[in-house]
Amino acid sequence: MHTLFIMDPIDALHLDGDSTYAIMAESTARGFPVAWCTPADLFADSRGAVARCQSVSAHLEAPAFRDRGPRAEVPLREFDCVWLRKDPPFDMTYVFVTYLLDLVSSQTLVLNDPLSLKCANEKMYALQWPELCPPTLVTNRIADVRAFAKEHDRIVVKPWDGNGGRGVMVTQDGDGNLAAMVELLTDTERNWCIAQRYEPAIQDTGDKRIILIDGEVRGWFSRIPGSEDHRGNMHVGARVEATDLTERDQEICAALSPRLQAEGLLFTGIDVIGDYLTEINVTSPTGIREIQQLQGRNLAAEICERAYALFQERNR
Q: 223 an active-site residue?
């Protein structure tokens, strides 16, 4: 299965925890030819979508990337599978890349599905299941957030298009900085932000990451915030711990599963705090390296196997 990864530059990856690298290495181990490029390397002409890409083999032992070929222009229709694994933010550049991927032949498997990526914003998509989420407000007005804080006291405010915990702040009713926070997040009421009720469970059970492959739960772990940062994101100091999957977690996953599968979101990572779904990560979810360490499950292998099965089904 000739595979292209559209991603961040490979020399900038944090190899110890990067999920894209794990999938690339698994693909190499299976004998799949692998190539990579960045979003900036894509364009379209009479051949359809084309990548200025480089062949490479990826290995979990050093040196990580070997057998790098010369850069070449390759129409995406010549690949069997194309993975869009560029990290957010999900901005207009990201959206435009999905337009280019819309031009790819139907014989090529594109993951996650570019049409669904357009519709499944990681902060907003979860709100299509309001019964699973904590009380949430999406607004561009400072007065609305003040009223929300008065109702719920302690709240979280965050940008609708952020990633990795960027711009996520905890505040409360009566906080003299609340208006200034919302001014920054909304660019003085020109854009939207999200406010959610603060869930204290994050301090005890953490921000749980659950990985679903083609809608099926395959692994999970908790991220516990550090003493100097409230966010449950690993790159800002949250520690990773093994945890159990609760009945509520299973209920949330069961509710999401049919949609994720139907919409071609093969590799997703959902975030759960306490009893509530907070995000559905679809653009470049991570966590499979942590799951292998904590649970002994090789999700990179499972992802490659499922992608290969889907490719075969499509091209019978």
A: yes
CATH superfamily, region 202-309 = ATP-grasp fold, B domain (3.30.470.20)
Catalytic residue among 281, 289, 290, 302: 281
In the residue annotation, 231 being an active-site residue is answered as: yes
271 catalytically annotated: yes
Q: Respond yes or no: is residue 30 known to be catalytic.
A: no
Report the CATH architecture of 135-198. Answer: 2-Layer Sandwich (3.30)
Q: List the chain residues with pLDDT less than 70.
A: 227-237
Active site residue 281: yes
* Helix/strand/coil (H/E/C) assignment for every residue in the chain: CCEEEECCCHHHCCCCCCHHHHHHHHHHHCCCCEEEECHHHEEEECCEEEEEEEECEECCCCCCEECCCCCEEEEHHHCCEEEECCCCCCCHHHHHHHHHHCCCCCCCEEECCHHHHHHCCCCCHHHHCHHHCCCEEEECCHHHHHHHHHHHCEEEEEECCCCCCCCCEEEECCCCCHHHHHHHHHCCCCCCEEEEECCHHHHCCCEEEEEEECCEEEEEEEEECCCCCCCCCHHHCCEEECCCCCHHHHHHHHHHHHHHHHCCCCEEEEEEECCEEEEEECCCCCCHHHHHHHHCCCHHHHHHHHHHHHHHHHCC
**Does residue 279 carry a catalytic annotation?**
yes
For residue 315, what pLDDT is reported? 83
Q: What is the pLDDT at residue 229?
A: 66
pLDDT at 207: 94
CATH number for region 3-112: 3.40.50.20
Which residue of the set 279, 289, 290, 302 is catalytic?
279
Q: Is 86 a catalytic residue?
A: no
